[in-house]
Design goal:
heterodimer; A: mainly alpha; two-stranded antiparallel ribbon; B: 290 residues; mainly alpha
């Protein structure tokens, strides 16, 4: 595992370093930075949805929560942004822990409904507490500065986001390959079996929920300072479903899938261009079609295909796979952590 | 006293809508074991289509009929083209599919009928009826009466008709029902149509009171589900009682505490219910099966 880990890390660094060399236009830069920020939140949500198998359509609440907390700390209390961001992320982590303790007693659809409620309620709070949040009109945010260095160019923002993304990806892959990662997968596949194997399933799910909220918080606080303006729309139903869609389309349980999901679904509205009204229709269709035709998501499906090619030689490989349905199962077993 | 009665009436009015919303959830949940996140959007369609047709000069009854028909077709399409092709997918995948369906329906509604609030005229005027010092709008009577009639009709369907009994048999054990010659595929389709029908009627009854907008299905659906959970998920009678109770609680909180935060009631409630009595008021105790 170790050599793979180092190889993946170096590869990721190389790709992230190469991207700005290919971009000359500030519009594309903007899209890439927003993809990076979304990817951080999606990587976190993937730990809850992909690894632990608990569906949340409420984690955009933590994205918005951190963005607002950081914005209020900087503009009302004149904190430096570099101090406000970690504090707002910590605030979201504590909030998530307090919420997760009762919420993770729920399972399946009841949990999903509760997370839907969470997203809606945070939106209601943001709309109603006008004195703090500016209400439906939103709030202007301070620009990010690190020490005396103002993060005010595309390149500097890219560097910040790429660094955070690299850390997020590394942490997520690390978790995936650790004992905790395997325990989470066991909870996903069968909670009863996991409990029988001595795993404290409730506490493990709470931790996954909190970690996902922390990642969402980092993404949210940074996005707030990046866009310069935030509205309660950050935790609308559409935004919440968008996050979940990114996890599902890329592939539940795969870090690379989470990033790919963020790339595809952040780029999609840009490609739709003037047809932004069709965003909801497109997201809904993509979500349904993925679940029907590619239930494992893009990255795991491709990985399975590649493994199948690797483990079979000669022309009878395909016939072999077709004859023996257990073959697919075996491939899935050998897949391990991608 | 009259203030309390006023809140109680408004609670029973919205509670009737939540009861119908919860009943729709229950029928699909029993038939397919899936919580249909698009259930609330059936309510939205009922209200929105009516609200779109009436200003075009359609008479109210015709507009309502078409709205109900469109919603039922929508529900049938959902089962036929999104739920059925997923085959034996796990509940998590089915939940995600219905979330996709929900946002898809909202997207279509937003594009075809606009993003604005829509108004449906009250069925029989806006002159309030006075009762023990509280005033009651005729539309509230329509909502309560309509819900009562629909619940009675559904009860007869499941208890008295052969098709309804077949559907119940399928809910109890789909394999055994199939062996007895019940066409489970058609039954599933019928269950979705029925939930669409109930949803559309509830949406039409609610629209003159709440006004309607493309994403109103979210909160109506959420509350219907919480009501059904309160009553015991899977129990139709429980869904109705739970919906009414939720409506009353919400009206009391809005009246005596804070109207802005009444929408927080169901969220807090669902967590409390699941912690204190996961089987709800009338549900049977469920055990996870390995």
């Amino acid at each position: 595992m170790r050599p793979h880990f180092l190889r993946d890390l170096l590869l990721t660094v190389a790709v992230l370093a190469a991207i700005p060399l290919l971009i000359s236009n500030s519009y594309i830069f903007d899209v890439v930075i927003r993809i990076g920020l979304a990817a951080v939140a999606v990587i976190g949500l993937n730990i809850l949805m992909g690894l632990a198998g608990q569906i949340s359509i409420g984690h955009a609440a933590f994205v918005a929560g951190a963005a607002y907390t950081s914005a209020i700390l900087t503009s009302v209390y004149h904190w430096p942004t570099i101090a406000a961001i970690p504090v707002s992320v910590a605030a979201m982590t504590v909030l998530a822990l307090l919420l997760a303790a009762p919420m993770l007693r729920l399972n399946g659809h009841a949990l999903t409904i509760a997370t839907l409620g969470l997203g809606l309620i945070v939106q209601i709070v943001l709309v109603n507490e006008v004195a703090w949040t500016g209400g439906p009109d939103g709030l202007a945010t301070a620009p990010l500065t690190i020490g005396s260095l103002a993060i005010n160019t595309d390149m500097r923002w890219y560097a910040v986001v790429a660094t955070v993304l690299l850390i997020a990806m590394t942490l997520s892959r690390n978790l995936d390959r650790s004992a905790a990662g395997r325990a989470l997968r066991t909870v996903r596949d069968s909670e009863i079996a996991a409990a029988a194997a001595g795993i404290d399933t409730y506490w493990l799910k709470v931790r996954a929920f909190v970690v996902a909220a922390a990642f969402a918080g980092i993404a949210g606080a940074l996005s707030g300072h990046y866009t310069g303006f935030i509205t309660p729309d950050m935790t609308s139903f559409l935004k919440n479903v968008e996050l979940a869609t990114m996890v599902v389309v890329g592939g539940r349980g795969s870090t690379l899938g989470a990033v790919l999901g963020a790339v595809l679904l952040t780029a999609l509205p840009e490609l739709l261009g003037g047809y932004a009204d069709y965003e909801m229709i497109a997201f809904g269709l993509i979500l349904m079609m993925t679940m029907i035709f590619l239930p494992n998501g893009i990255v795991p499906s491709i990985a399975t295909k590649l493994q199948a090619l690797k483990y079979t030689r000669g022309s009878d490989a395909k016939a072999n796979a077709a004859r023996n349905p257990q073959f697919d199962e075996a491939v899935r077993w050998t897949e391990g952590g991608q | 006293m009259s203030t309390f009665l006023q809140y109680l009436f408004s609670g029973l009015t919205v509670g009737s809508i939540y009861a119908l919303s919860g009943l729709g959830f229950t029928i699909v949940y029993n038939a397919r074991g899936v919580v249909n996140f698009a259930q609330g959007d059936f309510l939205m369609l009922g209200g929105m289509v009516t609200a779109t047709l009436v200003p075009l000069g359609w008479p109210l009854p015709a507009a309502i009929s078409v709205a109900i028909l469109i919603t039922v077709v929508c529900a049938a399409l959902l089962q036929r083209f999104a739920i059925a092709p997923a085959g034996k997918a796990d509940p998590v995948s089915l939940i995600i599919i219905t979330i996709g369906a929900s946002i898809f329906i909202q997207g279509i509604a937003q594009n075809v009928m606009g993003r604005n609030q829509h108004i449906v005229p009250s069925f029989s005027g806006d002159t309030p009826v006075h009762f023990l010092g509280a005033s009651l709008l005729p539309q509230s009577l329509w909502a309560m009466g309509g819900a009562a009639a629909l619940v009675a009709g559904i009860t007869w369907f499941f208890r008295g008709s052969l098709v309804g009994k077949g559907m119940q048999a399928m809910a109890i054990n789909a394999d055994a029902a199939r062996l007895m010659g019940i066409k489970t595929g058609s039954m599933l389709l019928l269950a979705f149509c029925l939930s669409g029908f109930i949803g559309a009627v509830a949406g039409v009854l609610a629209a003159p009171i709440t006004t309607t907008v493309y994403d109103i299905g979210l909160s109506l659906g959420l509350k219907g589900f919480v009501g059904a959970t309160l009553g015991g998920l899977g129990n139709g009678f429980g869904a109705v009682v739970g919906g009414l109770l939720l409506g009353i609680m919400e009206a009391m909180i809005a009246g005596y505490v804070s109207p802005a935060y009444k929408d927080a009631v169901p969220f807090v409630l669902i967590i409390v219910i699941m912690l204190v009595m996961p089987q709800g008021l009338f549900g049977s105790r469920l055990k996870d099966r390995v």
